Recover the amino acids of this structure.
């Protein structure tokens, strides 16, 4: 009986080996189309301040016209190699090719693509790779400052309008800036956005800010010269690239498919990241999303071109960045109450469409301060981790609580939002929007709400904690914060 088991096992093993070989042959035929997914891995890194090291791992030697591998330098907007392009390096085909190139400043914003000659064409066999350790070049390497967990917009935070207010930002004591493009300078404005910026009647929403231009050398030079200058400031440590960029209102580009939009933003983000980190090694660079978390909009839906939900945006953004060299990007999110015009989140009975709004948060369609774990749990997935394997840095870069229902309600909600952030180990900072007023949205503080805000991070915090719980009617924050 034991002998029969051995024979059966041997037969099964042989069959499995045969199926594996057949599968490999089929896979080999498929992979010989020689697309960018052929390589198992590829990397472009600075080995020192003067040398770029490019390495790759191939599953087997690719078929080619001449048995050679070629390395090409591509602009951020290039995803294929022209037949007339000249390689920057070449070598006989090998399973683990390695190239060394001289570093030049222009190569901080270009990428290296490994290719073969196939049918007379230059065919990429690995995703083009950017330099992923620009911090090695940094002039400024001072450790990050220690500052309070919460802050206020206008004090430690401001918008950095490129080609607009750099001198004012540098003159201040800001630690966090949000990099914006008003569209006033055509050089820094993405050409797709520039082509339609004066034809708002063709689009569902009116643009407020515009996609940055990393699609031509002039735009890259304009953006990076300003950001590099800012990154050397003694106080600036956080750079947020765009505002709620999953919403096209704030980051306008031509009304095209989302894949094209994502590609243009990822290009701009990479250029900004490398510019900042090459000057300040300890600066952090963030992508910014709004509250829409899991609200898929199909093609044809009236909101399809307005926004992509944050979950899908981060998934797509991460995939694009990782394919061309993973970097240590972070997330800035705005966890307003839902809706942002109503502060009494624990009692929605007086809120218009209160049941619907409550369901949006409870079901995870929207992210507020109440369910921040939706975001941070997602960032703990293996594919979302930073290059070091850590959960990415998260800041809550804008939250405003309206005073419409009185300063007591406003104060209790301010404290609840603070506790939600403080209780989550993956939140680095929360930044309040207090100096804002327009019809229906007034987040200015007075009376009790000012007292509450002033208590945060002080010895008076415990007293405000007890007061806020009593007003809301809870014994523990877990009753209203998930």
């Amino acid at each position: 009986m034991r002998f029969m088991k051995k024979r059966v096992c041997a037969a099964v093993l042989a069959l499995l080996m045969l199926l594996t070989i057949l599968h490999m042959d089929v896979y080999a035929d498929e992979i010989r189309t020689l697309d960018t997914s052929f390589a198992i891995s590829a990397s472009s890194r600075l080995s020192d301040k003067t040398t770029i090291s490019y390495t790759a791992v191939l599953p087997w030697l690719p078929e080619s016209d001449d048995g050679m591998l070629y390395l090409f330098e591509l602009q951020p907007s290039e995803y294929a190699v022209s037949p007339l392009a000249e390689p920057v390096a070449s070598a006989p085909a090998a399973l683990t090719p390695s190239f060394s190139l001289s570093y030049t400043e222009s190569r901080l914003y270009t990428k290296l693509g490994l290719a073969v000659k196939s049918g007379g064409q230059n065919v990429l066999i690995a995703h083009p790779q950017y330099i992923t350790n620009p911090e090695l070049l940094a002039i400024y390497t001072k450790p990050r400052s220690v500052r309070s967990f919460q802050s206020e917009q206008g004090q430690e935070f401001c918008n950095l309008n490129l080609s607009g207010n750099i001198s004012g930002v540098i003159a201040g004591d800001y630690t966090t800036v949000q990099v914006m493009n008003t569209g006033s300078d055509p050089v820094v404005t993405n050409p797709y956005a520039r082509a339609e910026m004066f034809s708002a009647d063709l689009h569902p929403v009116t643009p407020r800010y515009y996609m940055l231009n990393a699609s031509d050398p002039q735009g890259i030079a304009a953006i990076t010269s300003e950001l590099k200058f800012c990154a050397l400031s003694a106080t600036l440590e956080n750079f947020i690239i765009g505002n709620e960029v999953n919403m096209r209102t704030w980051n306008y580009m031509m009304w095209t498919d989302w894949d094209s939009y994502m590609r243009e933003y990822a290009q701009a983000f990479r250029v900004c990241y490398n510019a900042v980190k090459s000057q300040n090694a300890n600066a952090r660079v963030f992508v910014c999303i709004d509250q829409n978390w899991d609200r898929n909009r199909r093609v044809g839906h009236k909101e399809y071109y307005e926004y992509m939900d944050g979950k899908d945006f981060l998934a797509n953004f991460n995939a694009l960045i990782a394919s061309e060299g993973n970097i240590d990007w972070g997330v800035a999110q705005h966890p307003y109450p839902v809706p942002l015009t109503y502060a009494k989140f624990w009692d929605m009975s007086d809120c218009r469409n209160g049941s619907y709004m409550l369901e949006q948060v409870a079901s995870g369609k929207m992210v507020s301060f109440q369910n921040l774990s939706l975001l941070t749990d997602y960032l703990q997935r293996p594919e979302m981790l930073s290059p070091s394997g850590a959960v990415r840095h998260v800041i809550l870069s804008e939250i405003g609580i309206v005073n419409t229902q009185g300063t007591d309600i406003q104060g209790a909600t301010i404290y609840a939002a603070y506790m939600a952030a403080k209780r989550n180990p993956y939140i680095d900072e929360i930044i309040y929007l207090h100096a804002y007023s327009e019809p229906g949205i007034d987040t200015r503080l007075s009376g009790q709400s000012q007292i509450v805000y002033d208590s945060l991070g002080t010895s008076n915090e415990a007293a405000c904690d007890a007061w806020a719980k009593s007003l809301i009617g809870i014994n523990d924050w877990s009753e209203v914060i998930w």
